[in-house]
Write a structure and sequence with these properties.
By secondary structure, the chain is mainly alpha-helical. It is 38% helix and 6% strand. The radius of gyration is 28 Å and the shape is globular.
Length: 840
C-alpha cells in the first residue's frame, strides 16, 4: 500500500483513503450555494425514495403491476406454479402400483380405487393442478393416464430381447472392422480433442452402454411387434413384461451395487450413493439422467427428434449460421469469472458418457472411407452436415462435423433411450475429488489429509501432473521439458486455462484447510483431516454457488421465493425432503445450463499488475494449453483479467472462437459448439422449446408472433427464417432467444429448468451444508464461519500474488462493488478455530 493511502493499482482503494484537499477547498468557497442546492435535491430524493419504497413494498407482498415489462410478467408466472415441477419419476411413482410387469399377463389395473388412499393414482395428491399449460386433450405430458397396452406373451418379450442382442453384436462387428482397418478420428484433430480430452468416457460407462444399446434396439423390436404408437412406446412400454431375470438386468454388468447404507455416516460417499437412504442410487455417479419432461424421439424410442410435419428438422449448422451469428454483446454487470464459475459447477454435476468403439476408441463418422461404405457406418454416428456454401467451413472444403451419440444408459425395461451421467448429481466437489474410491485414492497424498500436488521451483503448488502422452492434452514439445497437463477429479480440468485455475485454487484451498486443521488438532489422523477438509470445501463451494452465482442467474426475488438463498449467521435449514429426486435433468445438462456458452468471450484478457499491461489471447490458443501455469505470475494475470473483463451477454450470439474454431489447436478450423449443442439436444430426445414452455406454465404459442413478448425481436426474426413451425424450435435456441427475467441472466424457460434443478440439489441433498441433521451437521459456530465464505477470499488466499480483487468478483468493479486489497478486512475470513477440539 502506498504511503499516500491509495493502492498502486488504479481503482483499488485502501481502507482509509487519503482526504481530497482540493475538493475540500472548493466546498468551503461555495458552501452557501451548494447548501441551498443540496436542500432542494434532498427534498426531491426523499420524495422519490418514498415512492420507490412504496412500489417495492407492493411488489414484494402483492402481485406485480400488470403493466410491468414482459420479463416481470414471466417471473410472476414462474412464481405461481408449484415447485418442484413434476418429472418422469413422479409419473412412474403415480402409476407403478396399477401396472403389472408379469409376462403373459397384460392386465394392468390391479388396485381398487380409493380416494382416501394417497397411493391411489386418482387421489388428490396426484391430481391437483400443476399450472402447466398443455392444451386440452394433450397427453404428451406427465399428467396423462397410461395407455392400455395390447396383450403380449413371454415369446414377444424373449424374441425382442434376442433381436436386441443381435443388433448389439452387429454393432460390435462394425467396431472390430473399423479397428482392423485402423479407421479412427485423426490424433490431434479438433474432434479427437473433443472426444478424448474433453468428453472422456469411463470403461464402466462403455460396458454399461452396451446393455443400454441392446435394450434400446429390443424396445424398437417390441414396438414393431406390438404395433405400439410413438406415444405409448415412449411413456408406457416400460410396463411390458418382467425383465428382472434377463441378462439385461445383470447387476454384475452395471455400476456396483451400493454397500448397505449407514444412516449415521458423518461424511458423504464419494460416488453419491446413500445420500438418500430410501433410494441409495439417487444422484449417484454412473446413473441415468433424470427426465424433467417427456422425451421427444422421432420413433418414440431413440431416433432423433423430427419436425412437426414429420420431416427433418433444419440442420444444426444451418441454425447456427442463421440464428447464432458471430457477434458479441457484452454483459454490463458480470465478469468473465461468472462464465468460469458456471463451468466449474457444471463439471461438478454433469459428465455425459459418449459412445465408444473397440477398446474405448473414438468412432469416426466423417471419414471418406466411412461415408462411402455404409457397412462401416457406426449406428451411433449422427454427423452434422455442413451446407455447401457454409460461410466458414466451405473455405476448408469441409462438409461434415464429427458427432457421435451419447452412450445409452442400461435399463431393466422396455422404453425410450436415456443417457449416462458419470458425475454425482450433488454439488459435492467431485470435480476436485472424483467419483469413485479408486479415483479419490489416486488424488490423495495419504499424509496429513492432503491432496497430491507438484511444487514449482519457486514453491508454488500446482495440480499433480498427467503424464499420459495420449491424453489429448499433452504435447511432445512440452513433454520433453517435463511440463505436463494436470490431473484432477474431473478429466476436463485442462479444457481451458481459466477452468484449470479454478481446479488449482480449490486443490490449494483443501490443502490449506488440512494444514490449519492439523495445527489446531495435532492428534487427528490423516483420514479425519482429509474428510473434514473435504467437508469444508464442499460447504464453501455450495455457499458460493447459492450466495453469489445462482442469484445472478435467477435473480434474488426468485431465489427468495424458492427458498434457495443461504440462511446466514449460523442458522440451519430444515427443508431436506427425501422425496425430491436430486438427479440432474437431461434438459438441464443438454440445454439449459449450456447458456453459459453464450457468455464466452473470444479474446481472453490478462493483466500484468506491476506493469499494468493488458494483453489479450484468442480463446482457441488457451484451450488444452495449461502449460503457462508453470510460469510465475501467470495465474494472477489471468485472474486479474477475468475479474476486469465483461463476460458476454446471455443471448443467441456467439464468438467464432467456439462456433467454428473450438478445439482447433494449430489448425485453421475446429468444431462448432452451437451446432453440437443443438444436435446433442436432439440426440438426447430433449423436448422442443414450445413443449418446455408449457411444462413451465408459460403460455403456449400458436405461431411465431406469439413469442414477441418473451423473445428478442432480432432473434425471433432469425428463428422464423430457419424453422417451418414454431413447434420445431429447439430448446437450446429458443431458450437463448428469450429476454432475461427480472434481475436474472436467463429467460423464463431456462430459468424454470435451472430453478427446478437447483432446488432439487439443495432440498434433495441430505448432506447440504446448512442441514441440522446429525452427525453430518456442522456446529452452530462452524456454520456461522462457513456463512462468511466468499469467492473473493478463496481466490485471494490461494493466489497470493494477486494483490486485490473486487468484493463480489462475479460482478464488474463499480460503485458498491469496490476493488479491495486482499488484506482488506472488508473481505471476510473464515476462522477455523471453531473446528478446534479439546481444551484450549
Amino acid at each position: 500500500m502506498a504511503a499516500s493511502g491509495y493502492s498502486e493499482i488504479p481503482g483499488v482503494y485502501s481502507e482509509t483513503p487519503r482526504p481530497l484537499a482540493n475538493l475540500r477547498r472548493t466546498l468551503r468557497t461555495y458552501k452557501t450555494c451548494i447548501g441551498a442546492s443540496m436542500m432542494v435535491v434532498l427534498v426531491l430524493v426523499l420524495a422519490s425514495t418514498l415512492s420507490v419504497l412504496i412500489s417495492q413494498g407492493l411488489d414484494e407482498d402483492g402481485p406485480v403491476d400488470p403493466q410491468s415489462v414482459p420479463a416481470n410478467l414471466s417471473l410472476v408466472t414462474l412464481m405461481a406454479v408449484p415447485w418442484p415441477r413434476r418429472d418422469e419419476n413422479w409419473y412412474i411413482n403415480r402409476w407403478k402400483r396399477s401396472c403389472t410387469r408379469l409376462p403373459d399377463d397384460p392386465r394392468r389395473h390391479q388396485y381398487q380405487p380409493d380416494p382416501n388412499n394417497p397411493d391411489d393414482p386418482e387421489a388428490p395428491e396426484w391430481t391437483r393442478p400443476d399450472n402447466s399449460t398443455y392444451p386440452e386433450g394433450d397427453t404428451w405430458n406427465w399428467n396423462r393416464h397410461p395407455d392400455q397396452l395390447p396383450d403380449w406373451s413371454s415369446q414377444d418379450v424373449s424374441s425382442s430381447l434376442s433381436e436386441g442382442s443381435k443388433e448389439e453384436e452387429q454393432k460390435t462387428m462394425t467396431e472390430s472392422e473399423l479397428d482392423r482397418r485402423n479407421l479412427s478420428i485423426p490424433v490431434g484433430s479438433a474432434a479427437y480433442r473433443h472426444q478424448h480430452a474433453f468428453r472422456k468416457t469411463h470403461p464402466l460407462a462403455t460396458n454399461m452402454s452396451r446393455l443400454g444399446y441392446s435394450m434400446d434396439r429390443a424396445s424398437c423390436v417390441m414396438r414393431d411387434r406390438m404395433n405400439l404408437s410413438r406415444e405409448t412406446s415412449s411413456f408406457d412400454a416400460r410396463w411390458i413384461g418382467d425383465l428382472t431375470p434377463s441378462p439385461y438386468c445383470d447387476r454384475s454388468k452395471l455400476r456396483p451395487r451400493p454397500a448397505p447404507c449407514t444412516a449415521g455416516a458423518r461424511y458423504r460417499s464419494v460416488d453419491g450413493t446413500c445420500n438418500n437412504l430410501k433410494n441409495p442410487s439417487w444422484g449417484a455417479s454412473f446413473t441415468a439422467f433424470r427426465r424433467a419432461m417427456p422425451p421427444d424421439y422421432g420413433d418414440g424410442i431413440s431416433a432423433l427428434r423430427r419436425a412437426k410435419d414429420g420431416g427433418e428438422l433444419p440442420g444444426a449448422r444451418t441454425i447456427s449460421n442463421v440464428v447464432h451469428i458471430n457477434r458479441m454483446e457484452d454483459s454490463q454487470s458480470y465478469s468473465v469469472l461468472t462464465m468460469s464459475w458456471g463451468q466449474f459447477v457444471d463439471h461438478d454435476i454433469t459428465l455425459t458418457a459418449l459412445s465408444k468403439g473397440k477398446r474405448g476408441e473414438s468412432i469416426p463418422c466423417c471419414l471418406s472411407e466411412v461415408r462411402n461404405n455404409p457397412t462401416l457406418r457406426h449406428p451411433e454416428c449422427a454427423p452434422i452436415a455442413l451446407p455447401r456454401d457454409d460461410p466458414f467451413y466451405a473455405a476448408f472444403n469441409q462438409s461434415c462435423l464429427e458427432f457421435v451419440r451419447s452412450a445409452p444408459a442400461p435399463k431393466c425395461h422396455f422404453g425410450h433411450r436415456d443417457q449416462l451421467n458419470q458425475q454425482t448429481a450433488f454439488l459435492d466437489g467431485s470435480a476436485l475429488y472424483g467419483t469413485s474410491t479408486k479415483q479419490l485414492a489416486s488424488l490423495r497424498a495419504f499424509k496429513d489429509g492432503l491432496l497430491k500436488s507438484q511444487l514449482t521451483l519457486d514453491g508454488r503448488q500446482l495440480l499433480p501432473p498427467s503424464k499420459d502422452p495420449k491424453d489429448g492434452c499433452n504435447t511432445d514439445e512440452q513433454y520433453k521439458y517435463d511440463r505436463f497437463c494436470f490431473l484432477a477429479g474431473d478429466p476436463r480440468a485442462n479444457e481451458q486455462i481459466l477452468l484449470t485455475i479454478f481446479h488449482t485454487i480449490w486443490a490449494r484451498q483443501h490443502n490449506q484447510l488440512a494444514i490449519i486443521l492439523k495445527d489446531l488438532n495435532p492428534d487427528w489422523e490423516d483420514e479425519r483431516l482429509f474428510q473434514e477438509s473435504r467437508r469444508i470445501v464442499i460447504a464453501q463451494i455450495q455457499h458460493i454457488t447459492y450466495h453469489e452465482y445462482v442469484p445472478s442467474v435467477l435473480g434474488p426475488k426468485f431465489m427468495r421465493h424458492l427458498g434457495l438463498s443461504p440462511q446466514g449467521d449460523g442458522i440451519y435449514t430444515t427443508d431436506y425432503n427425501p422425496e425430491f429426486h436430486p438427479g440432474i435433468a437431461n434438459e438441464f445438462a443438454a440445454a439449459a445450463f449450456r447458456f453459459g456458452h453464450s457468455q464466452i468471450q473470444g479474446l481472453v484478457q490478462k493483466i500484468d499488475a506491476p506493469e499494468k499491461n493488458v494483453d489479450f489471447q484468442q480463446l482457441s490458443t488457451i484451450v488444452f494449453n495449461p502449460f503457462s501455469l508453470y510460469d510465475t505470475g501467470t495465474m494472477a494475470e489471468y485472474v486479474r483479467g477475468q475479474v476486469s473483463q465483461h463476460t458476454g451477454a446471455v443471448d443467441t450470439y456467439f464468438t467464432s472462437q467456439v462456433s467454428g474454431k473450438l478445439f482447433r489447436g494449430d489448425e485453421k478450423f475446429g468444431l462448432d459448439l452451437v451446432s453440437i449443442n443443438i444436435q446433442r439436444g436432439r440426440d438426447h430426445g430433449i423436448a422442443g422449446y414450445v413443449r418446455a414452455r408449457m411444462h413451465c406454465g408459460l403460455a403456449p404459442p400458436s405461431n411465431f408472433s406469439d413469442l414477441a413478448n418473451d423473445m428478442d425481436a432480432g432473434a425471433l426474426e432469425s428463428i422464423k427464417k430457419v424453422y417451418n413451425s414454431v413447434e420445431d424450435i429447439d430448446l437450446y435456441t429458443g431458450g437463448l432467444a428469450e429476454r432475461p427475467i427480472k434481475d436474472g441472466l436467463v429467460g423464463p424457460t431456462f430459468a424454470c429448468i435451472l430453478a427446478d434443478q437447483f432446488l432439487r440439489l439443495k432440498r434433495g441433498d441430505r448432506y447440504w451444508y446448512e442441514t441440522d441433521e446429525k452427525p453430518q451437521a456442522f456446529t452452530e459456530a462452524q456454520l456461522h464461519e462457513l456463512h462468511r465464505t466468499s469467492l473473493a477470499r478463496i481466490i485471494c488466499n490461494n493466489v497470493p500474488e494477486l494483490g486485490s480483487i473486487q468484493r463480489w468478483p462475479l460482478r464488474m468493479y463499480e460503485t458498491g462493488n469496490p476493488r479491495l486489497p486482499c488484506s482488506s478486512t472488508s473481505i471476510p475470513r473464515v476462522d477455523l478455530g471453531a473446528w478446534e477440539e479439546g481444551d484450549i
